[in-house]
TrEMBL record:
NCBIfam families, per database record: PRK14140.1 (NF010738), PRK14162.1 (NF010759)
Entry annotated with the keyword DNA-binding: no
High-level lineage: Bacteria, Bacillati, Bacillota, Bacilli, Lactobacillales
Underlying gene: grpE
Family note: Belongs to the GrpE family.
GO molecular function, one term: protein homodimerization activity
Source organism (scientific name): Levilactobacillus paucivorans
Gene Ontology cellular component terms for the protein in this record: cytoplasm
CDD domains: GrpE
GO biological process, one term: protein folding
Protein name listed in UniProt: Protein GrpE
Length: 192
C-alpha cells in the first residue's frame, strides 16, 4: 500500500476543471437545439406596426427640422446682436454731440473763450471720429427728398422759388444711423 499515492488536491481540482470543460459544449448544444417558436403576425398587426413606425419617423423628422430651425434662428439673432452691438451707447452719446455742436456755435469774444472753444472742437472731433469708426453716421437731410424712415417732419413751409415739393429745407436736429438702422431720425422742415 505504500506504493500507492493519494491524489493531491491539485490533481483533483484539475480533473474537475477538465470534466467541466468537456461538459460545457454538451450543455451549450442542448440549449441551442431547443427550437424557437415562430412568430406569426397577421396583416392587420403588420399594418399597425408599419403605421407606428411611420408615425415615429414623422415625429423624428419634425423634431429634427425644429432643431435646425431653432439653430438657424439663434444664429440669425446672434448675428443681429453682433451687428448692432453698441446701439444703446451710441443713442446715449447723441445728445452729447448735440451739446458740443451748440457750444461750438457760440462766438468766442476773448482769448480764454477761444482756447475753450478749441478744446471743445477737439473733443467734438474725437467723439465724431469714434462714432464713425463704429459705423455711426449722420443721416443726410438738407436738400434731400423727405424720407419718413430717416426724417421726422416737425414743420412744413410753402415751396419757395428754387425748391421742390417734399424736400427738406432746414434741419433742426441731425439724425444718425448705426450701419443701416436709424438711431434717431433727423428733425426737419419740409417744403410743401
Amino acid at each position: 500500500m505504500a506504493d500507492k499515492q493519494q491524489p493531491s488536491t491539485d490533481d483533483q481540482t484539475a480533473a474537475k476543471a477538465a470534466k467541466k470543460a468537456t461538459d460545457a459544449p454538451k450543455q451549450a448544444e442542448a440549449k441551442a437545439v431547443k427550437p424557437k417558436p415562430k412568430l406569426v403576425a397577421s396583416a392587420e398587426e403588420v399594418a399597425k406596426l408599419n403605421k407606428r413606425a411611420d408615425d415615429f419617423e414623422d415625429k423624428y423628422l419634425r423634431a429634427e427640422a425644429e432643431v435646425q430651425n431653432v439653430q438657424a434662428r439663434f444664429q440669425k439673432e446672434q448675428a443681429t446682436l453682433i451687428k448692432y452691438d453698441g446701439q444703446q451707447l451710441a443713442k446715449d452719446i447723441l445728445p452729447v454731440i448735440d451739446n458740443l455742436e451748440r457750444a461750438l456755435a457760440v462766438e468766442a469774444s476773448d482769448e480764454a473763450g477761444e482756447q475753450l472753444k478749441n478744446g471743445v472742437q477737439m473733443t467734438y472731433d474725437h467723439l465724431e471720429d469714434a462714432l464713425k469708426r463704429n459705423h455711426v453716421t449722420e443721416i443726410a437731410a438738407l436738400g434731400q427728398k423727405f424720407d419718413p424712415t430717416q426724417h421726422k417732419a416737425v414743420q412744413s413751409v410753402p415751396v419757395e422759388k428754387g425748391q421742390t415739393a417734399d424736400t427738406v429745407v432746414n434741419v433742426l436736429q441731425k439724425g444718425y444711423q448705426l450701419k443701416d438702422r436709424v438711431l434717431r431720425p433727423a428733425m426737419v422742415v419740409v417744403a410743401q
